[in-house]
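[step 3/7] inverse_fold.run input=structure_tokens len=256
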């Protein structure tokens, strides 16, 4: 990553968000980039739990072998198949055979949803997740990912809309937790004019993040532009100073 961009963002983040946690980065590579392969579990394991470790300072690498969840494999681009009976799993299940999550009202709704759902193919053998401050010049992040409280999200959301002439600089697609922090942001980063993604509304994944946190993912194509706006935007106003003081007051609590 460009060292000037990295240091500029860290300085401006501390200036406007105080001691709020820095984001992490995600990108595909055939090299490990000094990351440790994530632990392989023999039972179902939600990778959001692993991403929480990255926010605490650990660089991890994921691939088609060590992701312990079928959804994680799909939304990271390492598989393209859904589990058999997925339309029942996401809705009301099959009595005596499969418990449904009841996130959709019936299997037909799920099937229609899947017709309009994009897929992702991994661009390399590893998906690297690194703390932002550990990025070096050999790293080429594709997503900058925050887990944040409402006040911080308000700042990120408003910044993401700063130069937009429409009302939708941020999207919030219905998705699994890993879809909202990995798949959809990566797909956005493939576009000429990407949007940011607000997520982590998946009730199945929420137990793996602290209460009150949501995710905000900035595609790298958008990130540099938004960093460039920080010193001229609402972040320099008295309005933001009020929020900044509240962020500082609460920053003593571990958010991650």
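[step 3/7] decode complete -> sequence:
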């Amino acid at each position: 990553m460009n060292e000037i961009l990295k240091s500029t963002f860290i300085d401006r983040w501390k200036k406007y968000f105080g001691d709020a946690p820095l984001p992490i980065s995600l990108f595909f590579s055939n090299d490990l980039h000094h990351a440790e392969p994530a632990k392989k579990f023999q039972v179902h394991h939600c990778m959001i739990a692993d991403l929480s470790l990255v926010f605490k300072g650990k660089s991890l690498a994921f691939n088609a072998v060590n992701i312990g969840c079928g959804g994680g494999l799909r939304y990271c681009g390492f598989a393209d198949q859904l589990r058999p009976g997925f339309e029942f799993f996401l809705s009301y299940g099959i009595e005596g055979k499969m418990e449904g999550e009841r996130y959709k009202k019936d299997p037909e709704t799920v099937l229609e949803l899947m017709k309009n759902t994009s897929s992702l193919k991994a661009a390399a053998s590893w998906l690297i997740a690194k703390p932002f401050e550990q990025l070096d010049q050999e790293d080429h992040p594709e997503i900058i990912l925050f887990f944040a409280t409402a006040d911080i999200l308000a700042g990120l959301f408003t910044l993401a809309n700063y130069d937009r002439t429409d009302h939708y600089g941020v999207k919030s697609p219905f998705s699994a937790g890993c879809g909202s922090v990995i798949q959809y942001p990566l797909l956005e980063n493939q576009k000429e004019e990407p949007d940011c993604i607000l997520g982590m509304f998946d009730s199945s994944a929420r137990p793996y993040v602290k209460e009150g946190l949501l995710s905000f993912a900035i595609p790298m194509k958008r990130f540099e532009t938004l960093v460039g706006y920080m010193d001229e935007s609402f972040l320099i106003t008295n309005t933001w100073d009020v929020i900044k003081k509240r962020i500082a007051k609460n920053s003593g609590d571990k958010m991650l």
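[step 4/7] annotate
The CA atoms of residues 99 and 206 lie 19 Å apart.
The mean pLDDT is 95.
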